[in-house]
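Lab channel / #folding
Pinned by the channel admin:
"Please post every new chain as: sequence first, then the structure tokens as a reply. Keep commentary short and put observations after the output so the thread stays searchable."

First post following the new format, from NK:
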Amino acid sequence: MTRRTQPPGLPVAISTNPAEVLDTVAGMTPLRRLGQPSDVAGVVAFLVGPDGRWITGQNLRATGGLG
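Reply from TO:
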């Protein structure tokens, strides 16, 4: 049985933090911006596709270089 999940993350962070905090966090990333859904979509597509079939039991963090 294979189960792939996505932990909670950015949508919650954006809705609960002031703009100053989000700007500070964005400045800490290599691209100097917060990730967008399209940034994570490619990672998710890979994991659920046939090329991701041997990735099991892992927690992959698509953080844009933060953390």
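NK: The CA atoms of residues 40 and 62 lie 6 Å apart.
TO: also worth noting, Residues 10-52 form one domain.
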